[in-house]
Amino acid sequence: MYKAIITVRLKPSVLDPQGTAVKGSLHSLGYSDVEEVRIGKTMELWLNTADRVEAGKRVDAMCRQLLANPVIEDYEYRLEEGS
Amino acid sequence: MYKAIITVRLKPSVLDPQGTAVKGSLHSLGYSDVEEVRIGKTMELWLNTADRVEAGKRVDAMCRQLLANPVIEDYEYRLEEGS
C-alpha cells in the first residue's frame, strides 16, 4: 500500500481569482501584510500496490489524465509507504 | 518576506464526496488499485514581514479566522524565507 500526496497548482503565469478574493478578505480582516495568495489543490490517494516505481508511474499518469489540467496547472507528488 | 504554505484537509471523520467522485472517475479510467481519495486545499501566502515568529502567529490566526473551518477541517503550515 502506498499513499500518494499530490499537489496541483495554477501555473505562475495564470491568474488566480480565488486567491485574489482570499487576499481581499484577509486585508479586510486586518492582515494587510499579505502580498499575494495562490490557491491550489492537494490530493491524497491510497494505492493498493506493492511496487513503488509502478505506483509512481500510475500516479503520474492519473495526474496527466484526470487530476491536473496541464494547460494551466503544474503538479507534483510524493509517495509514502504503508500508511 | 516569508512564504507560508498552508494545507487544509477535511478531518478524517468527515465524508469527502469530491474525493469519492474522483475515485469513481479513476476507477472508470482503469486505475482500480486506488482505494481511497481525499481532497484538500493548499494555499501559498506571501507575507511582507521580517519576523518569523510573528509571521507564524499571523498565519495561524488567518487559518483559524478565515482559511480553514475548524469544525470539519484540519490545517498545517510551514514557512519559507525570502521567496
Task: Describe it.
Two copies of one chain form a homodimer. Chain A has 83 residues and is α+β, with helices and mostly antiparallel strands. Chain A has one domain (2-81): Mth169, Chain: A (2-Layer Sandwich). Helices cover 34% and strands 39% of the residues of chain A. The first copy, chain A, has helices at residues 17-28, 52-67; strands at residues 2-10, 34-47, 73-81. In chain A, strands 2-1-3 form a three-stranded antiparallel sheet. Chain A is elongated, with a radius of gyration of 16 Å. The N and C termini of chain A lie close together (7 Å). The model of chain A has no long low-confidence stretch (mean pLDDT 95). Chain A binds chain B through residues 1, 7, 9, 19, 22, 25-26, 29, 31, 33-49, 58, 61-62, 65-67, and chain B through 1, 7, 9, 19, 22, 25-26, 29, 31, 33-49, 58, 61-62, 65-67.
